[in-house]
Fold this protein.
Amino acid sequence: MEVKLAPIVLFVYNRPAHIQSTIEALQKNELAGASELFIYSDAPKDEGQVQKVAAVRKYINKIKGFKSVLVVEAEKNKGLANSIISGVSEIIDKYGKVIVLEDDLLTAPCFLRYMNEALDFYADNKEIWSVTGYQYPFNVPVNYIKSVYLSYRGSSWSWATWKDRWITVDWSVSDYFNYRFNPKKIAHFCKGGTDLDKLLRNQMKGVIDSWAIRWCYSQSLQNKYTIYPCKAIVTNNGTDGTGTHFLITTDRYKSELVSDFQYEFTHDLIINPDIMCSYRRIVNRSIIRRVKRIFNNIIKR
C-alpha cells in the first residue's frame, strides 16, 4: 500500500545562506517532488534583522522542486517557540502528521523516505512519541544489529510526529510545582540527559523560551520514546554562532551525513543501556566542558 506523504513544515528566520543550503539538500530528496512544503517565516525582532529577513523571504518565495510550496509570513515577530507551536498545530490538525525542519539542517537524499516510512510504521505504536533523522556523533555498539534505536528524549534537529501525540502536550507545564522538588521525577526526566532539568527550570523562570524542552518534558511524563537512526541522515550546520538560540560555535554535535542509510524498522526495540550511556556523554551538563567552551570563545575574539 502506498504511503500517504506527510507535509514538510520548515521554520526560517534571518539566515539566507543557511536556508538555501537546507532547501538545496531537501530538493535532492527522493520524495521532494511529491511532498508539500509549508514554510513559516518569522518577522524581524528588531531593525537589525529587517534586511536579513527580507533576503530570506525573497529566496523562499521562489522555491521550486516540491509538489507545492506555501509560504506563511508573520507580520509580527513570534519567536521560534510560538512559531513552531502554532505552525505545527495548524498543519498537523489538517494532515494528522508532520515532518519538521529548521533552517540549519542538511538532509540526506533518503531522509524524506525514511521519515515517511517511520511515520507509517509506528503510527499505531503509542509508545513512540516521535522519530528523527538526526544521530549524535557516536558509534552504536558493534553487537547492536538493528538500524534504529530508542531514546528517552526527542530531537529538535529534524523530527516527525502524529496529531494524537502532539495535542497531549501541556505547553504551560501546569504540574511543574510537583516536579521541581521531587527527586524521583527529576531523575526520571534526566534519563534523557542532565541538561534537561536545567533547561526546564530556565524555561519556567522565563530565562529561555523553548518549545522543545516542553515537548521533551511531555514525552518523559508519558513514558514515551523517540526513534533514532544508528547513522545520521540529518546534520546541523547552524552551530557556527549565527543562530538566535544557539550562539556558541562548536562541532560537538556535528554528525557525518550518510547519503544512503540502509534501514529496517521494527517494533522489537528496548532501551539499550550502552547506547544511552554514549548518548548522555554528549548531552549531559559538564562543568569542565562549559569552562573549556567559555575559554575557547574568549581566545577566539
